[in-house]
Design goal:
Layout (H helix, E strand, L loop, with lengths): L15 H5 L3 E4 L10 E2 L5 E2 L1 H4 L5 E2 L1 H8 L3 H35 L4 H29 L1 H19 L5 H15 L4 H7 L4 H29 L5 H18 L7 H6 L3 H15 L7 E4 L17 H31 L5 H8 L12 H12 L2 H14 L1 H18 L6 H29 L5 H29 L1 H20 L18 H6 L18
Helix pairs in contact: 3-12, 4-5, 4-9, 4-10, 5-6, 5-7, 5-19, 6-7, 6-8, 6-10, 9-10, 9-15, 9-16, 9-18, 13-18, 13-19, 13-20, 16-17, 16-18, 17-18, 17-20, 18-19, 19-20
Length: 539
């Protein structure tokens, strides 16, 4: 008799009362339904109490852990990475290329150039919660497909914009679609076993770098000959490839269980087991239907109120500091060092606001180096996140960024300035990825997409505000600007430490209607490797 043993985590453990109180059970095909002796090859008999595995129950989390990481997850990683690279990284990177080009070609004043970037973040901010709600109500795959097709359609239309007002509206609609990209992480995380989850989500950052590098290389080839319109159209085409591959993507089995689609959840789990060449766990799949999903009030229940508020500030601080550092880097490098900023600003004020310079090959090279600087942050985060935990990883990232910001007070030279900015960007990008790991883990399936969506929306608020600090406030005081960024990240480090739940070593929550004590410690009421049956017997 082939028996599959699996480790039951704190979030997948169910008490006998849970099963009796109305949760449905679906029996997996191929298991025995009657107690009978089973003979082994040598003729020995297996006791009846161990011959029938149907008394055991398991949840989707248990099945994912038992099946493990395999061929299915590798395919899913590539497809999720493609969404991240094409729908997020490339469309965001194009902002730094499009703005100076239109500034020169259409003779736009500086405030209109800045508005081209801001309108994308406005679209992302306004749609993030909506996409999260759609994904919780109608499925992760549904929300992701609609957002990708939306971005593809308006991304191509942007290339045909005749005047400034048209491209402003169309890029805002592109931003509206980009707001749904984080839901790819929700779908991805729900198929990953616990041990691989943090590493896999962090490695999505590699696809971000690939997308930005590809966009810069595409701009080098297209801009001198075909111009910015073809760059916008060609940049949207990879989304078409992802849209086609979406037909391969299954719906999240966790979502199917919560929405009552038992047979579909079982079929998805069997498909994963077949592709991975692993057996399904024997027993009955516990189904806990929950009709009321994706409601904002669920984020503010007593269990999650502080977690939600602290995460909103953490995500705000991440985007505020990350995009602020990107803007400050350009300002510092053009000035030569921090102490030269004020004198340089006085000279710049005398120049016409319509003065423009097209991007040169050297500028594109600098964009490439800036992008590659994020790899060390991913590697460091990858190494420490499962050692010290998610909360401490975020806190450490914020603290290092804050410390590097304060060191800039010393009026360091160009070389030291480069090193400090390199370290600061590495850690703030790593902290951003740690937040992407923690957020899907801390919320239950019913509100996971909404939780991630609202956090992403708060991040866009930070991205909207940061130009006024990194560019406007910088004109008045360099040191006040650095204090704002350093202080914000210091507070975010404290907020990370005060998060009430550590998700390291804990399975994804299926339902919010659990015993809170188990959620806090991330362990079940019985030891690993032990499964509970309906009769209360242990294996």
């Amino acid at each position: 008799l082939r028996v599959v043993k699996f480790r039951r985590t704190g979030e997948s453990s169910r008490s006998d009362e849970d099963v009796i109180s109305g949760e449905h059970e679906i029996q997996i095909e191929g298991v025995r339904t009657e107690l009978e002796p089973v003979e082994l090859e040598d003729g020995a008999a297996v006791p009846k109490e161990f011959a029938n595995p149907t008394d055991d129950t398991f949840m989707v989390e248990d099945a994912v852990e038992a099946i493990g990481f395999g061929k299915f997850q590798w395919k899913l990683s590539v497809i999720t990475g493609l969404a991240w690279a094409s729908n997020y990284a490339m469309e965001m990177m194009i902002l730094s290329i499009l703005a100076p080009q239109l500034h020169c070609e259409w003779r736009l004043p500086s405030w209109q150039v800045a508005l081209l970037t801001s309108v994308v973040f406005v679209g992302m901010m306004s749609s993030s919660t909506l996409w999260g709600n759609i994904s919780d109500q109608y499925g992760r795959k549904t929300g992701l497909k609609i957002s990708v097709l939306w971005t593809l359609y308006y991304g191509i239309l942007s290339g045909f914009a005749p005047v400034y007002s048209w491209i402003l509206v169309l890029r805002g609609l592109v931003g509206f679609g980009i707001g749904g990209v984080p839901q790819s992480v929700t779908l991805y995380a729900e198929f990953l076993p616990m041990k691989a989850r943090a590493k896999c989500i962090l490695l999505i950052e590699v696809f971000w770098a690939i997308g930005t590098v590809f966009e810069v290389l595409l701009a080098v080839l297209v801009m001198p000959t075909l111009g910015w319109r073809w760059l916008l159209i060609l940049s949207a085409l990879p989304l078409l490839l992802f849209a086609v591959l979406c037909f391969w993507l299954p719906e999240s089995a966790r979502y199917d269980v919560l929405s009552g689609n038992q047979e579909k959840a079982i079929a998805t789990l069997k498909r994963i087991a077949t592709e991975n060449g692993a057996p399904m766990p024997l027993g009955k799949l516990i189904i806990s239907r929950q009709e009321d999903r994706g409601k904002m009030r669920d984020l503010f229940t007593p269990h999650f109120r502080w977690t939600t508020l602290l995460l909103w500030f953490i995500w705000f601080s991440n985007a505020f500091s990350y995009y602020g550092l990107v803007l400050l880097t350009t300002e510092f490098f053009q000035a030569g060092d921090v102490c030269s900023i004020s004198s340089r600003r006085k000279e710049v004020k005398a120049k016409c606001s319509l003065t423009c310079e097209y991007l040169t090959e050297e500028d594109y090279t600098d964009l490439l180096w800036t992008t590659l600087s994020e790899f060390p942050g991913v590697l460091v985060t990858l190494w420490i996140i499962d050692r010290i935990g998610r909360k401490k990883t975020m806190a450490l990232s914020f603290f290092v960024f804050s410390f590097c910001s304060l060191l800039l007070f010393l009026c360091v030279g160009r070389n030291v300035l480069t090193v400090l900015l390199f370290i600061a960007r590495a850690f703030i990008s790593g902290g951003f990825q740690a937040a992407y790991v923690y957020t899907p883990e801390v919320y239950p399936t019913a509100t996971r997409a909404l939780g991630l969506g609202t956090c992403s929306g708060m991040a866009r608020v930070g991205a909207l505000i940061t130009p006024f600090i990194a560019q406007v406030m910088l004109e008045s005081s360099v040191y006040l600007t650095l204090v704002v960024y350093s202080g914000c990240c210091l507070l975010a480090a404290v907020a990370s430490c005060f998060l009430p739940i550590e998700t390291k070593g804990r399975g994804l929550q299926e339902s919010s209607h659990r015993e809170w004590g188990q959620e806090m410690v991330g362990k079940g009421s019985h030891s690993p490797g032990v499964t509970r049956s309906n009769s209360g017997s242990q294996e």
